[in-house]
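Design request, tokens follow.
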């Protein structure tokens, strides 16, 4: 069984369930998904249900087709582990400086989008530093960094409240290119050689 497809299928089904509950409990004007000039709030949950079911079913079929080969045990490189810890400490330092800086600036001077852009740049910068030092990147912080960066740009230009849509697009693209990432072993535990 392909555990990644199973996990992402379950995530899609859970998110679809949350969206259905929100559709049923919130007033109609508070939850919008516009296609043209019509509000169609049921489109995202239905799309997620379809994707979730496809992923769950294909996870089971992928497991029956061929057994997964045994992967060699990963060895831990102490130099990479120490360098990764330093890089993470630097990223946390930038994050705390960002928080402190935004506490001094009034909300009417700098919009909320800049906060998201700063957080996204810190997360992506950490992973770029890992990449150039030949340390495996974190898929979680890479995806969150991209979503934060796009969400911040959207907030600055007041395009609308599309952060959720961008999150789904980025997660979908990650699933599409996951095999490519796995072949190049870009993501994983930073300490592994």
């Amino acid at each position: 069984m392909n555990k990644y497809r199973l996990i992402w299928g379950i995530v899609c089904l859970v998110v679809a369930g949350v969206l259905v509950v929100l559709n049923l409990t919130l007033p109609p004007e508070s939850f919008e998904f516009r296609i043209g000039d019509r509000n169609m709030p049921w489109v995202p949950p239905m799309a997620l249900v379809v994707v979730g079911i496809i992923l769950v079913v294909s996870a089971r079929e992928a497991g029956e087709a061929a057994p997964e080969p045994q992967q060699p045990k990963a060895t831990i490189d102490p130099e990479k582990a120490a360098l990764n810890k330093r890089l993470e400490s630097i990223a946390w330092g930038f994050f705390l400086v960002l928080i402190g800086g935004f506490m001094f600036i009034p909300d009417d001077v700098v919009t909320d989008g800049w906060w998201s852009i700063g957080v996204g740049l810190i997360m992506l910068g950490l992973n770029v530093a890992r990449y150039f030092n030949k340390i495996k990147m974190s898929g979680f912080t890479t995806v969150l960094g991209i979503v934060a960066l796009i969400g911040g740009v959207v907030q600055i230009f007041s395009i609308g409240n599309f952060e959720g849509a961008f999150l789904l697009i980025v997660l979908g693209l990650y699933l599409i290119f996951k095999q490519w990432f796995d072949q190049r072993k870009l993501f994983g535990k930073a300490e592994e050689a």
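Comment from the thread starter after seeing the answer: thanks! The first helix runs from residue 3 to 25.
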